[in-house]
Amino acid sequence: MQEMFIHAEEVRELLGISRSKAYGIVRQLNDELKERGLITLNGKVSRKYFMEKIYGSDNAGNQ
């Protein structure tokens, strides 16, 4: 079973980007979630939200 949150290191691996860029993406997504009034965790972001923002849906990355 996949974890509910994706860590910045996994974002880095999936997208083939630098560590600092991965943390920047996680921060950006968490800022968007905070604006919606949701609780966020530093260095992690909702896996579902990440997949929706990167691939357009939560299932697109699993095909």
Helix amount? 40-55%
Give the tally of β-strands. Answer: 2
Largest sheet: 2 strands, antiparallel
End-to-end separation:
16 Å
Q: Which spans of ≥5 residues are poorly predicted at pLDDT below 50?
A: none
**Topology pattern, helix = H, strand = E:** EHHEH
Please tell me how large the radius of gyration is.
Answer: 11 Å
Mean of the pLDDT scores? 91
Shape: globular
Helix-and-strand structural type: mainly alpha
Number of domains in the coordinates?
Answer: 1
Explain the overall architecture.
The model has no long low-confidence stretch (mean pLDDT 91). α1 crosses α2. A two-stranded antiparallel ribbon has the order 1-2. It is globular. The relative contact order is 0.19. 54% of the residues lie in helices and 10% in strands. The protein contains 3 helices and 2 strands. With 63 residues, it is mainly α. It has one domain.
Secondary-structure map:
Blueprint: E1 5-7, H1 8-15, H2 19-35, E2 44-46, H3 47-55
Antiparallel strand pairs: 1-2
Helix pairs in contact: 1-2
Summarize the structure.
The protein is mainly alpha-helical. It has one domain. The chain has helices spanning 8-15, 19-35, 47-55, and strands at 5-7, 44-46.
Which terms would index this structure?
63 residues; 2 strands; mainly alpha; two-stranded antiparallel sheet; DNA-binding protein
